[in-house]
């Protein structure tokens, strides 16, 4: 195990062991404990009281972050010719159909999100083995299979993200960059957690939000008191 640097030791010293911070406190503290020289991502990990193995306890959804993600999201719009102008005007980085399907079959996946239409999903289904493991497969539940191509592209470019609970009951997502202000980090985290709460399955029993941690790339996690999420 690598030794901690002086800055990392100082950062860890700012986190009080065993303390659950308010979301407001954590949003400021995560900036203080981040020592990376690059603009690190700010991540939220929420452990849910669900059993993802059961279909009626699966938690999946989308959320539009108030301040965006801070990332340049590369969007591919796989659409019919009549939707090309709409997708292009909305800001899609790549627009087309057959030529991009062939590129993906050849191994090209230099994109972050694929948006397509119900009428062409039959052609895209064959790409599942390539797109699935990379989390790129379009899905109606995440809003990436729609006839409203332009709106879908705009939403993704403005900070719409989709999330899904993993097999261990944890939802992990990036909600911004360390260059964001504490208020921006807090607003984005609050919107994400509030959306998770609204998606609570009726079959889930007992405590739904078991733990929340806020961190940045390579920083320690800061435990958050779930009750503080709704505080002003």
Write the layout of secondary structure elements.
Layout: H1 6-12, H2 23-32, E1 41-48, E2 60-64, E3 75-78, H3 84-90, E4 94-96, H4 98-105, E5 113-116, H5 121-124, H6 128-131, H7 149-157, E6 160-164, E7 170-177, H8 182-198, E8 209-216, E9 222-224
Parallel strand pairs: 3-4, 3-5
Antiparallel strand pairs: 1-7, 1-8, 2-6, 8-9
Helix pairs in contact: 2-8, 3-7
Order of helices and strands: HHEEEHEHEHHHEEHEE
Q: How large is the radius of gyration? A: 19 Å
Overall number of strands: 9
* Overall pLDDT metric: 91
Main sheet overview: 4 strands, antiparallel
Q: In which range does the helix fraction lie?
A: 25-40%
Poorly predicted segments: none
- Strand order of the biggest β-sheet: 7-1-8-9
Task: Describe it.
- Belongs to the universal ribosomal protein uL1 family.
- Binds directly to 23S rRNA. The L1 stalk is quite mobile in the ribosome, and is involved in E site tRNA release.
- It comes from Candidatus Parabacteroides intestinigallinarum.
- Pfam families: Ribosomal_L1.
- With 232 residues, this protein is of the alpha/beta class.
- Helices cover 28% and strands 21% of the residues.
- The strands form 3 sheets. The protein has a 4-stranded antiparallel beta sheet. Strands 4-3-5 form a 3-stranded parallel beta sheet, with helices on both faces.
- α3 runs parallel beside α7.
- The longest helix is centred in the C-terminal third of the chain and has 17 residues.
- The chain is globular.
């Amino acid at each position: 195990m690598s030794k901690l640097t002086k800055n990392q030791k100082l950062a860890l010293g700012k986190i009080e062991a065993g303390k659950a911070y308010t979301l407001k406190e954590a949003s400021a503290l995560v900036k203080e404990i981040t020592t990376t020289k690059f603009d690190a991502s700010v991540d939220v990990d929420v452990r849910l009281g669900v059993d993802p193995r059961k279909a009626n306890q699966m938690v999946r959804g989308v959320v539009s972050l108030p301040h965006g993600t801070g990332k340049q999201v590369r969007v591919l719009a796989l659409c019919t010719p009549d939707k090309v102008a709409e997708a292009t005007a909305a800001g899609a980085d790549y627009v087309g159909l057959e030529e991009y399907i062939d590129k993906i079959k050849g191994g090209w996946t230099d994109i972050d999100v694929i948006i397509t239409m119900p009428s062409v999903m039959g052609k895209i289904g064959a790409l599942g083995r390539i797109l699935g493991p990379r989390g790129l497969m379009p899905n109606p539940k995440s809003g990436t299979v729609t006839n409203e191509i332009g709106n879908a592209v705009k939403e993704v470019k403005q900070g719409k993200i989709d999330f899904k609970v993993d097999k261990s009951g944890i939802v992990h997502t990036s909600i911004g960059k360390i260059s964001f202000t504490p208020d921006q980090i807090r607003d984005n985290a609050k919107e994400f957690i509030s959306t998770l709460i609204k998606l609570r399955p009726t079959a889930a029993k007992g405590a739904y939000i078991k733990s929340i941690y806020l961190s940045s790339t390579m920083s320690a996690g800061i435990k958050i008191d779930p009750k503080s999420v709704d505080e002003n």
